[in-house]
Amino acid sequence: MEINQIQDEIIDEFGFFGDWMEKYEYIIDLGKSLPLIEEQYKDESHLIKGCQSQVWLHAAEMDGKVQFTADSDAVITKGIIALLIRVLSGQKPKDISHADLYFIEKIGLKEHLSPTRSNGLVSMVKQMKMYGLALQAKP
């Protein structure tokens, strides 16, 4: 499935919830189903800078597509990275680096996060796009 199709699915899913407490619960549930990062990647080099919580992110290329795994020490943050992984994992590096992640705005996520969590979201997106660029440049 393409990035925009996945984003549209997420927008539809968030449309079912009446208020932000329900949406937060859904985000937390998504975090519980996150494909966990291997312990060896829970180190300083995989830590996303700029996040209030600790977030580790690993990317590996398989058959021309990027597979992300992650973990966080905070439940909301874990859910947010799970959403990003759902959209970007399994995509081509070029598509990741050029992705317009409009779903963040459409579901109102950024405006319902604290300023520090919002900065963390930006850092997560930036790091995932950097992985896309790096893997795109690989021969």
From TrEMBL:
Pfam families: SufE
Superkingdom of origin organism: Bacteria
Domain Fe-S metabolism associated intervals: 12-130
Family listed: Belongs to the SufE family.
Protein name: SufE family protein
Organism: Phaeodactylibacter luteus
Lineage: Bacteria, Pseudomonadati, Bacteroidota, Saprospiria, Saprospirales
